[in-house]
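Memo to structure team: turn this sequence into structure tokens by end of day. - J.P.
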Amino acid sequence: MKNGWQAARIGDVIVVNSKSKFKVRDSISDGEYPFYTSGVSINFLDDFLCDGKNLFIATGGKACVQYFEGRAAYSTDCYSFTTRAGVAPKFLFYFLESILGDIDEHMFEGAARRHLQKTKFREIIAPLPLLPEQQRIVGLLDEAFAGIATTKAIAEKNLQNARDLYAAVLEAFFRELISSKTVDLGSLIELLTDYHANGSYEVLKQNVELKDTEDFAWMVRAPILKTLFRTRCVILPSRLINS
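Reply from structure team:
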């Protein structure tokens, strides 16, 4: 532990708020106050149970800790508390967040539904610097997480823009394809000849001029050509037909 820091039991530095009388089912969608339950989602309620800087930790299911400044409510599945003098509530919140995996693994017990063992939770040892240092650390973490939130929002916006562009390209392509015309393959061919002709078809070879540079003509193998003629038609986008 760093020089000047102390170690303290969670139970010695928190002030537990009164037990809630509200069930999760009491929440409403447009209430005045945030309503904390055993999950990460926040509901709403028209009544409040606490004011100021408070923490809310789920007592059932999976470990989850949240922090709020102001009036709020919490359900019977939530353990709510603030801190004593000398301990910044948000500093304690960040510390509990850092060990949330251990809390979930070692302090939630039960067969059908796991519950927080509050006695074990209160025995957690928290490292505590002096209050000014706690506040400095909270400021640094707030700034870091604000930057992460901004970066995440920009990344999500860029991803959405990419998805919109992808959808627009597909839509434009298939809109053009749907408006395309079906034409006979023969009407697209100006000259058809056979470079490898022999015997009675050798006269076709006379129409072939080989070039060393790239040109407009294609050389197609006979099996492929047969397949094309069996198809008898091709679909061309309208911009090709009209050009």
